[in-house]
Amino acid sequence: MQTVVAIYTGQGLADPLKKVFQELLPDVRLVNIIDDSLIGDVVRAGHVPELVNRHLNQYYRHAEELGADVILNTCSSVGDVADEASAGGAIGVPIVRIDEWMAARAVEGYARIAVLATLPTTLEPTLRLLRRKAEEAGRTVTLVSGLAEGAFDALVGGKPEEHDRLLLETAKRAAGEADVIVLAQGSMARMEQALTEATGKPVLSSPKSGVEQVKAVLAALEQAKAAREEG
């Protein structure tokens, strides 16, 4: 049985992602590592502080010790840390950014992309990822920032209706300048249909596409293993 270790910086996405795994990868062993102190540290600092970077790399190494075939980095705010860990070669298994395929699909299909976020610390890494994916694909895109100010505080303050209202208002403003709306945070995926209906624009979210990428990576690993055994 293949193992995926998902690393979370907060509690909100674990249950929704579990359902996606049950749908797309029912035979995979899913292990969750959740440290909900991390996103608070990132928000307070306004960037990824060195301590959070170190903790994440410790979790990547622990995931490897747990037998991970693939590590899923579920938080877009710390996606750059996952990229650096992958490039550095210290982690011996693939690390998938939950938002990577979402970003690739956005730049492949649309020229004007609105990025919706409730935190600047998530908005900026998502914009960087979209620019990189556009460059890799040889595409020219226009990015529109849609920061729903106050929405994150409303959510953590126990006011989900206020969070949703602010998100919808921000989406409507950004939609006029965009062909598609990208949701920077996986926890927003539950609003995908409501945002599509409110704006008339397609909306892309990361949980399902992130797990689809994990599935593709696992399949490639199995094929490589079979080829080695045949050789």
TrEMBL record:
The lineage of its organism: Bacteria, Bacillati, Bacillota, Bacilli, Bacillales. Belongs to the HyuE racemase family. GO terms for molecular function: amino-acid racemase activity. It comes from the Bacteria. This is Asp/Glu/hydantoin racemase. Gene3D superfamilies: 3.40.50.12500.
